[in-house]
Amino acid sequence: MKNLRKEFPVLSNNTYLNTASSGLLYDSLLEFRQEHDLDFLIGGSLFRDSQQIFFNNVRKTIAAFFGSSDTNVVLTPNFSLGFNTILSGVDKNKKVLLLDEDYPSINFAVTSKGFNVCYATIDATVEQNIEDAIQKHQPDIFAFSLVQYINGIAIDLDFLTQLKAKYPNVLFIADATQFCGTRAFDFNASGIDILGCSGYKWLLGGYGNGFMLFNHNVLDQITPSLYIDAAAKTNYDPSYTSLQARFECGHLDTFNFGSLQYSLNFLNKIGISIIEEHMNTLSDYAKSEFTKLNLLEESVLKRQRHSTIFNIKGDQELHLHLKKHHIITSLRGPGIRISLHFYNTKEDIKKLSDVLYRYR
Length: 360
Hints:
By secondary structure, the chain is an alpha/beta fold. The chain folds into two domains: about 5-25 and about 270-360, Alpha-Beta Complex (Aspartate Aminotransferase, domain 1); about 30-270, 3-Layer(aba) Sandwich (Aspartate Aminotransferase, domain 2). The chain has 14 helices and twelve strands. A seven-stranded mixed β-sheet has the order 2-8-7-6-5-3-4, with helices on both faces. A three-stranded antiparallel β-sheet has the order 9-12-11, with helices on one face. Strands 1-10 form a two-stranded parallel sheet. Helix 1 runs antiparallel to helix 10, helix 2 (about 50-65) runs parallel beside helix 10 (about 255-270) and helix 3 runs parallel beside helix 4 (about 105-110). Keywords: Pyridoxal phosphate.
């Protein structure tokens, strides 16, 4: 992994612990992007003549990476646009279960549209809280982040699979933006009905790209009947009227989605299982170090497994102090968010711990 750090110029002068805010641009991706625009420069409209084949290949790459069918992959500029499109096709009388303090792109999107909402608490027993809430409130939809953006609490995937088997009529919609790219994942075996992701964090795809994965026939359930009826009565090309077209309206950007495809292939070359193993080691080490310094909330300490996102005790003054030492983090919620990717090392965590120790 250390050799791969040379791909990321930011790391030469900084200890970058902020992937949860933005993944990094790297040298070979920059080369791809420059070549892409050069081809556009000299080809003009000829460059776009094969765009349908190009985007079909992007869908196939996404499907292969996440264990889905490419016919069930929808391309979207980001998770939020895809999620709001989903909600616009759902009956507002449906009851939606949310996690309290989950990402605003989920919670505000749901509450602002007038859905009947209920909540489960995010703490050390979040899985039990979710099941209790489903039993009590009997929601039609459960919308949630797989990994919480503030403190990094991650919902157990085996639990979700078992929960879906127990409540097959509840529609599971997951935001995986803080998850995809951190470990191997098989969407078809997950129990999740719809999974969405923006590509600019752990997938290293840059901004302006994302995707939604749908289980078989789910698109039919979330498409308004008026849309389906109107599409059946027209002779327009399916690219304007299909169920996917509601999400992919207008021109998609070959630059952005090409960047996502390039990065998925980049991660594949490293090996997602190797990335997962490295990140598990980093997570365990970071949790141990932060525990020694009494920096973690009780809910995280009680969890057996954790993601690579941590929220440590601290304020704006400490955040600026870290920045002066070229340690890049984010202020989030009650403290300072630390987030790790495969380009991070134990030495990065040691440097952070040393600075924190001296600051205290």
